[in-house]
Amino acid sequence: MEMTATKQQTKSSLVPMAIVAVLFFILGFATWLNGSLMPYLKQILQLTPFQASLILFSFYIAVTFTALPSAWVIRKVGYKNGMALGMGIMMIAGLLFIPAAQTQIFVLFLLAQLVMGTGQTLLQTAVNPYVVRLGPEESAAARVSVMGILNKGAGVIAPMVFTALILDSFKDRVGTELSQIQIDEMANSLIYPYLGMAIFIGILAFAVKKSPLPELEKEQEEQGSEKGQIKQALSHPNLALGVVALFVYVAVEVIAGDTIGTFALTLGVENYGVMTSYTMLCMVLGYTLGIICIPRFISQPNALMVSAVLGLLLTAGIVFGDSQSYVIADLLLVPFGGAQLPDTLLMIAFLGLANAIVWPAVWPLALSGMGKLTSTGSALLIMGIAGGAFGPLFWGLTSSATSLGMQGGYMVMFPCYLFILFYAVKGHKMKSWK
Q1: Angle between helices 358-367 and 237-258 (to 10 degrees)
Q2: Helices 275-293 and 34-44 sit at what angle, rounded to 10 degrees?
Q3: For residue 164, what are the domain limits?
């Protein structure tokens, strides 16, 4: 009887998980377009590294302001309607890129990124608890890893699509001074791709609204104010420290995924627009290993510890490595017809392997024992995505302040991986602040 019940529960979860899988793909596609958009706008708007980092800052800073309101919205309208509403906001953001491209006003691009980040925050707050709660807690990291493969798989595809639709015609302009006519031509090439994306997301939002996606059991409103709920949630050290862990994790994830193209542009790599795909491919490999190994061969905390150590080693290689060396590419890429890329650039891509398991491992560890505070805890964890705003910002500032330039900017990742290591070893076990 128990086995039959388990099979029925698995079968009943298939349709919701399939729908959620599509949403994770959309999240990944819209998010990892930034890796190609950042160097592209840097080129046509002639931005400094710090100004270019503001493109990512405006996208991820939305989390800080909208994560907790998103939790409130979900409690009022439900998880399913929250997903549809989040995609509706993302559709509006896609449409905002059209006047931004036509006018080439940097602030309008930042506004479009801010609105996109707002929609993504609401969608993330609704969709992540689905994955955690649709199955046993001990295998949650494996389920999140499946979603991560789709999310990061979209991150592989998005830069390729961006390059095919937009960048292929402008490869000969890398490292050259652009005329106003060339700038106008490059800027206007953004209009139809973002219009198409907005229409597609709008159709998907309507489809989710009308889908048979079941509503998760609504949590009872806690007595007291929103601040009281936040304080109660943060009284759980594993949750509070998990928020910090996700903050520094998203910082290094975005640095690895979205600055690699800008660094490649500086090194004179023509196909800078697809460099994010390299990082995402490594993340997909990491998620696949997570599905295979967790919890069968390695526990979630131990996988998190291995990820942190690997991140520290790769960061050291990036900061102190030789950008004129091509040993890794000569061994792994060139023999198979791949591009000859600098070692430091490929080590940034390898950070995807180190980063992959962090998100799926931290979520179940941080939400363990939260009970009725799950939505508030989820919103606080989603606020950790704000690390994606500050990571590239500090990278841009450090790049300008060190003699090593952009390469030296990657040293900001050292303290991030050290904190992830602390959370893996001790932080997630803490049940009291005393």
Answers
A1: 160
A2: 160
A3: 14-213+227-429
